[in-house]
Specification:
The complex is a heterodimer. Chain A is α/β, with parallel strands linked by helices. Chain A is 32% helix and 28% strand. The longest helix of chain A has 30 residues. Chain B is an alpha+beta fold. Chain B has a single domain, classed as Alpha-Beta Plaits (2-Layer Sandwich), CATH 3.30.70. Helices cover 18% and strands 18% of the residues of chain B. Chain B contains 2 helices and 4 strands; from the N terminus they run βαββαβ. The two termini of chain B are 14 Å apart. In chain B, 35% of the residues are buried. Classes of the chains: A alpha/beta, B alpha+beta. Chains A and B meet through helix 4, strand 12 and strand 16 of A and helix 1, strand 2 and helix 2 of B.
Amino acid sequence: MIIETDVLVIGAGPAGSTAAKHAAIGGAEVLLVDKKSEIGTPKRCAEGVSKNGLKKLGIKPKNRWIAAEMDRVRLVSPSGIDVWLDQENVRLPETGYNLERKVFDKHMAMDAARAGSQIMVKTLAKELTLKDHHVLVKAESMGNTTKIKSKIVIGADGPESRVGRWAGLKSTTKPKNMESGAQFEMVGVELEDIRATEFYFGSVAPGGYAWIFPKGDDIANVGLGVINTITPKNAYQHLLDFVRECKATQNAVAVEFNVGGVPVGGPLNKFVTDNVMLVGDAAGQLNPLTGGGIISGMQAGLIAGEVAANAITEGNYSRENLKKYETLWLEENELTFQKYLKAKEYLQSLSDEELDSIARAFKGSDFERIGPMELLKKLVKVSPKAMVKLGKLF
Amino acid sequence: MLIREFCMYCGECAGVCPRNLIEVGESTLKFGQKDCKNCQICIQVCPVSALEVEERT
């Protein structure tokens, strides 16, 4: 069987569905495929997004997919010293809503369908070839092999990112840049504040951090990310240790277990080529410090979808023409991502003792009244290397 | 490659495979064994240690 379409989107996460939606709005014929039988399941993340991020994308919050609202952040050092940040005083990434991704992702795919996109679930892309100004994708769906011929493919296939590499883009993630994540969704979590996201730093999660993202009442996502090249334990073993030691999870019970890779090396140098664009995790478009990527991936989806629709109208699917997407997305995000990358490297360089002394220095600080320069001065006092690693950012 | 039954098909192994040889389905994991250079990066990153080198006799 051969299916023909203008735009094929591979992967129906938030980035892929947003791309499909906007390509369809722009008038292109769109097919969105996902390998899973249920879009959004299983989730592979802690589910946090900023309110402003959704607003900028023009998405109205719906109770159906918002589990809880957050307005504070609690940072916890290795020996348990905590620093509180308020949303009002500090602009916090990935803080605002904690989603129910299973519902949210499906809702975004439905939006794509309402805009005119076709969707095929349980459909796995197996091969991709570029041929005479079109792309041929071999896919398997419920035992049937299908060939999908399209003018443009948008690869939203997540951290595995096979699409990019099939098209000749360098999207392999180095192991030192692949955060290995494990998470329980738990009930009976005893939180200090049910409106606060918690982050735990240090040897509890080598190369990354541990988190608690509350989802209302006594429910929360409790997880962590580690860099496997610097720890002999796997992410699951680290998670078991964390849950055993953490005060909040002493009486908590897991009802779900999630795992997955998070590519934290920053965005790819090039995520567009002839006939092919990458969006979301597949393009490394997630905050390298926090690992959060729902909004930045959707932002990419929006731009890529619009650029794809225009390219279809113009009949030009070359890299030159599709590159507008790359340029626009980088304009919006490159600088911020470079800062987060620096901040991540600095954080990774800190020992448990250093983290404790920083936490001690900042405990009880009134962040509303501290400007960035003062913040750095204060930080450099307890952690001199901050000057070298972060100085240029302020 | 030996895939243990508790593999969760998250695809982290596929993302780091330098030769793009790993296909992750909803509940399948396939290795392009023929071209594998045995670098074992996939084994190292697995969040649940579900991959093992197959003993060849």
